[in-house]
Amino acid sequence: MTRQLRAALAATLVICTASMQAQTGTSAKKTTKKVVKKAESPLERTLRELREQMQAQQEQINQLKQQLADRDARLSTASQEVQSANASAAAASTQAQNALTAIQSNHEEMQTLSSSVSDLKVANVGLAQTISDTKKDISAQLESPTALHYKGVTISPSGSFFAFEGVFRNRSINSEINTPFNTTPYPGAAQAHTSELNFSGRPTRPILLIEGNAGKFTMRGYFEADFQSSGTTSNDNGSNSYTFRQRQVFGQVETQSGFVVTGGQMWSLVTETKKSTDNRTEATPLGIDHQYNVGFSWARQGAIRVQQRFRNGLTLAGSLEEAQNIFSATNQNTNFFFGAPGTGGGLLNATANYSNNVSPDVILKATYDAKRAHLEVGAVGRFFRDRYYPGQTNATPSTVGAANDTKAAGGIIANVRVSPSKYADVGFHFLGGSGVGRYGTSSLPDTTVHPDGRLAPIKSYQGLYSMEFHPAKKLDVFGYVGGEYAQRTTYLSTLGSSAGKLIGYAPVTSSNAGCGVETLPSANSGYGPGTPANCLGATRFIMEGTAGFTYRFYNNPRFGRVQYSMQYSYLTKTAWAGVGGAPSANNNMVFTSMRYYIP
């Protein structure tokens, strides 16, 4: 709108206002007068048109204002919508970013999950195999358990075997599968000219091991027996009913620190072991002869043993063991005793002699286990007591002055066993001292006697060299050479009727003249072969060489083992020289064995 137009409008408004006021005043005065219509002048028409234009413009202005307001409202709304859209876009962007992050995370998780699934599949395959193996193990344990379970203990018969064994000797000694080596006959004995052949199932050996693990210590009970004992009715004529006997029966407690206490009947601590001084690891010869081999030192007897194993391979052990006295003398007086036969009705054999012991045998040993070697050193302490009667040799025999006398004796032990490879084991055993003859497998004497009736220990030595080879898993080849020696021990008597005689073991004045002269049978029953006359033949030295093999032609942990063994041994025995020389004897022996070991 121009300035001129605005000025015209303003003037028009002023004139109109003044005119209206004038008309209003005149009209008020002439209300009673008749209104006369006046013709419109050009100015009025112009003003009227101006007013109409102004009103139209005002309406346009109002419409424009309304349009502007509407536009502003729409702009505000659009701005709000834009802000909302921006906020929504930002939220959508955030959501998109979060979704992208989630997608990436999900992708990683999917990869991890995929890897886990793959691992799980592999694990499932392994688990399935483990379950299958476990089922097989459980089935195997149910069908063929290695031990029976009773409450908190396990019971295992492992090591038990059934045996058929035989022996041939070219010089008969009337013995079965064990050889009493010192009884090999001199040439003058009738049996030195006959052979013997014996079969036996008596070595069959049931074994039972019972173990209970109490945590801090383990308890064991061990039982081992065979049928190598004879009753008063035992014979080979019919059912061969020989008696059942205990070989080993003992109880044991072992702590986690390696301290072990064992009590019962067991192998003597004198016997070499393969590991520490542990029971059931005795290094017995692999041969078939159940008297083992000359030179092997052993006993199975009542004992209480303690041992302590150390982590460096060292073991210290001590044992108190049942004592007995193997006695031999010539020209002795009847002025002493040290034992008696078993009492009828008691638990000792009435046909066997027993020593009245003053002390158990005391045995100490130290062992060391290296990677390929086992070493042992030890000592044996023995005490022999008898009651002697000095007045027996008086012109008028009397018990006056009777007294007890105790002699101490003993020896040393040394064992070395080396395994240069898994194919070979080589060993050397030695036991020597005085009064230790009974620990040798030949049972040479422990003591003899002085003219006055006091006992005298005899020096003796035992040694065994062992060679054991394992060229194949199923095959063992073995060889042994052993010897035992008893020293001549005599004393010149100055007492009574025995004055001038040599008394003791193997007097040089004793006769060996008849040791090579065969004599007639001593009975007409067919069971009385002749025995040499004038033949003391006190043993000086016994030696045996052995060679053999064991072949395990079937071995299965479920079903057991079947093996065959054969052994050849050559034995020589030499006596101390006497009147007529120093006789000797020999024997060739062949052993066979077939055994089935239960698993």
Overview of the molecule:
- The chain is an alpha+beta fold and 599 residues long.
- The chain folds into two domains: 3-14 and 44-126; 144-228 and 242-597, Porin.
- Helices cover 22% and strands 39% of the residues.
- It contains two helices and 26 strands.
- It has helices spanning 3-29, 42-143, and strands at residues 148-150, 153-156, 161-169, 196-200, 207-213, 217-229, 243-255, 259-267, 300-309, 314-321, 336-337, 339-341, 353-355, 361-369, 373-388, 403-421, 424-434, 447-449, 455-457, 459-472, 475-486, 489-492, 502-505, 539-556, 560-575, 584-597.
- The strands form four sheets. It has a 20-stranded antiparallel beta sheet that branches. Strands 12-13 form a two-stranded antiparallel sheet.
- Helix 1 crosses helix 2 (42-143).
- 28% of the residues are buried.
Topology:
Blueprint (H helix, E strand, L loop, with lengths): L2 H27 L12 H102 L4 E3 L2 E4 L4 E9 L26 E5 L6 E7 L3 E13 L13 E13 L3 E9 L32 E10 L4 E8 L14 E2 L1 E3 L11 E3 L5 E9 L3 E16 L14 E19 L2 E11 L12 E3 L5 E3 L1 E14 L2 E12 L2 E4 L9 E4 L33 E18 L3 E16 L8 E14 L2
Antiparallel strand pairs: 1-2, 2-5, 3-4, 3-26, 5-6, 6-7, 7-8, 8-9, 9-10, 10-14, 11-15, 12-13, 14-15, 15-16, 16-17, 17-20, 18-19, 20-21, 21-24, 22-23, 24-25, 25-26
Helix pairs in contact: 1-2
